[in-house]
Amino acid sequence: MNASGTVVAAHGRQYRVELDGGETLSCFTRGKKSELACGDRVSIRYSDSNQGVIETIAPRRSLLYRSNAFREKLIAANVSQIIIVVATEPSFSDELVTRCLVAAESQNLRALIVLNKCDLTDRLPAAEATLTPFARIGYPLLRLSARTDASALRPFLSGQTSVLVGQSGMGKSTLINALLPGVRAATRKISTALDTGKHTTTHATLYRLDAQSALIDSPGLQAFGLHHLAPAAIERAFPELRPFLGQCRFRDCRHAREPDCAVRAALTRGELDSRRYAVFQRLLSEAG
């Protein structure tokens, strides 16, 4: 007997599939290589009363993934929104935020930056200063403290399939617990000596908020490679560059040292953030 459903948890080659009828089934793929992501729509065949075999994957509306020169790591499929979680403590990488936003732009996803742990008021000004360039170019920024009240996030989740991404220790699991108290996602203290978070979430998991809304919690990130993006896609993924594209002297301008570069001119005039421009150049270098 065959059935259809959604992958709601991915553990290596083992998956939990929520069938359309509401039942959740442990499933496996055929062969050794697996290319499934949390959020994928699949058809399965029952192998016995407690397990299933995934036969096919439905065409995806979106696929969020990262890559380096050697491999790709799938994060989530069929999401409509990426929520980048940062915090006042531990410190976070603004380059990682930029890379997550570039990935979102490349898949035409909505993006929201959540600044968590805003109750730590002594750390708040520095965190907000780091996020100012993102707010300036139009990315929405939500300030909250998940341990106290995460209700301000709910309107952003309504009608969306969202994925939480960010470094370890930013409070993604705490957000899940605040929004879905019955889940009891594991949380861990940060290392104050090293100013780093510890990995708590080990695999992606999809949670239903209501019939139209879902939230995927993903493992903490320390890097977000985008080797799969072509230079033209990288350019378009920086909204602040778009008004200047096509205005350079050379059609194949890499916006580095070429003469009469409209992007470099905008940078010199102070119209572009220098740190985001530096990430842009690193991404072009990675693309080859």
UniProtKB/TrEMBL annotation:
Domain CP-type G: from-to ranges: 67-224
What compartments host this protein?
A: Cytoplasm
* EngC GTPase domain boundaries: 77-222
**Keyword annotations for this protein?**
Cytoplasm, GTP-binding, Hydrolase, Metal-binding, Nucleotide-binding, Ribosome biogenesis, RNA-binding, rRNA-binding, Zinc
Q: Name one Pfam family in it.
A: RsgA_GTPase
List of residues binding GTP: N116, K117, C118, D119, G166, Q167, S168, G169, M170, G171, K172, S173, T174
User: Which cofactors is this protein said to need?
Assistant: Zn(2+)
Q: Which Gene3D superfamilies match?
A: Nucleic acid-binding proteins, P-loop containing nucleotide triphosphate hydrolases, Probable gtpase engc, domain 3
- Does the UniProt entry include the keyword Ribosomal protein? no
- What SUPFAM superfamilies does the entry give? Nucleic acid-binding proteins (SSF50249), P-loop containing nucleoside triphosphate hydrolases (SSF52540)
* Comment on bound cofactor: Binds 1 zinc ion per subunit.
The record's similarity note reads: Belongs to the TRAFAC class YlqF/YawG GTPase family. RsgA subfamily.
Functionally, this protein is described as follows:
One of several proteins that assist in the late maturation steps of the functional core of the 30S ribosomal subunit. Helps release RbfA from mature subunits. May play a role in the assembly of ribosomal proteins into the subunit. Circularly permuted GTPase that catalyzes slow GTP hydrolysis, GTPase activity is stimulated by the 30S ribosomal subunit.
Subunit and partners: Monomer. Associates with 30S ribosomal subunit, binds 16S rRNA.
Q: What is this protein called?
A: Small ribosomal subunit biogenesis GTPase RsgA
